[in-house]
Every structure is written in structure tokens, then in C-alpha cells.
Amino acid sequence: MADTAAAGPAQGGYAHGVPCWVDALLPDVEAGKRFYGGLFGWTFDEGAGPEFGRYAQAYSEGRAVAALAPKQDGRMPTVWNVYFATPDAYALAKKIKDAGGQLVTDPVPVGHFGTMALAADPEGAVFGLWQAGTQSGFEKKGAPDSFCWTEVYSRDKDLVDPFYESVFGYAGSDLADAGVDFRTWSPAGTAPGPDTAIGGRSLVSGAFPAEMPAHFLVYFNVADCDAVAAAAQRLGGRLRTEPFDIPYGRMAVLVDNQGAVFAVLQDPPQNPPEGADREETAGQ
């Protein structure tokens, strides 16, 4: 899939509609630091001040990859949120409402960093908007221990597909080799398909509990899916879906030590250069 290139997520770093940031809303940020530090090797800053919700930014190899935020209300979900870039959060918020979505949090400036909002699609799946100020978002993505993909799980594709494609201008493409009803999104002005896709829509199937709401799933790239799945359990998390192979690598769906769900994806092995096996045999 394509790789297009904080108290929240420099100006112009990400095109409109491209995922530019993720954060986890947790009851215990310090416990989250221990879990994700152990799982991905992330390090963390001391967290922004109370005016920014004590937002703790995570780093991989010294580059910003995500953040952990404390829940301000116990009724709020423990969840990973994905933010989509926009040059105008206020205009996009209006467009979302006009298209049948809702605003969970109206656009609000976050100091000099940028402007954020939280929205929900017509089925209630929540996602974020980020209008960059001094912070554009990910400094590392698509590489091990960083964000690589997101998809929304919906029940009514005839409702949600037109919503996202009108709001963000995505070029949609049904993925024939997925084995399930799956549609990819490519940024406006690009040819639709896996080579340009930045996210997608799947369906909530019978494999999910009947009460499962529409939701986004955030993926992190890893070097070894099985090893990360095992480490998550040692660190107090659990498996929602055991590691399994898909056309784009090997993945698992995990739950952290506080209940936030996320996925990990290992890239498929690279094909050896033509003749490599013969050369190796000849040298023995």
C-alpha cells in the first residue's frame, strides 16, 4: 500500500485525506508507556502540559510515531484514534455534517501545533481531522514500529462508501483478491488501486460480536508478527486474532493491557533475485 508523505500532528506535510497521526486514549498513560515501550521499543516525552491534556508523544528511532493521551472521563472509550490531514478543518467539519456525519469535537486550535476535530461517519465510526500548524504528524511511518495502514469496519457499504469518497474526494477501488468485501481509498487526483491506497473500508462480518459498532482499526508495521503477538501477551495484552497471512503480509489483531485494539502487519518476504538459489547451491 502507499506511503504518502505533537501535541497532535510542518505545514503541507500530508495531502488532504491522508492519515497523518494516531493516538491512544487510555485510562493509565504510564501503563501504556510500559506496554508500547516494551512492544515497539518506543520512547516517550514527558507529556504536554495540562492545557494540552498531558499528551505524551511516542518516538521510534527518535522520530514521532504516535501519542498516548489520558482519558478525561471514564465513560470515554479506550481506543486508538486515526487523524486525516486537511488544509481546512472548519470547512471539512461542515462538509462532514452536510454528508450525514457528526462532529464529536468541533474544530479547536491546539496552540501553534495545529487544529483538530473528531468526527463520526453515518454509522458512528469515529475519526480525527488534523489541520497542521507547526506539527504535520508522523515523522516515521510505513517502517517497523510505526503506523502503516487504517481501515473502517462498517455494516452498510452503500451508506459509508459515498460518505468517505465525497468528504475526502477519495478514489475508491474494490479489492478483488482480498477474499472479503473490501474497498481501498486513494487520495483525490490519484489512480485508484493498491499502489496508491492510504486506507480502506471493510465490513463487520459474522466473525464479529453482534454488538460490535462501526470502528476504525489502526495498523502498525512490524518486523516479526508472531514475535510481536507473543510479546503483547507477555506484557499483559491479549490476542483478538491470531497471526495469519494475507496478500499483503502477515497480520494479527491485538488488545493492549488496557483494552485498546490495534493490528500489526509484517511485510511479505521479498522475492530473491532471479538465479539467487542457483548461485547459492553452486557455491556449496
TrEMBL record:
It comes from Streptomyces monticola. Coiled coil: none annotated. This is VOC family protein. Residues 18-132, 146-267 form the VOC domain. It comes from the Bacteria.
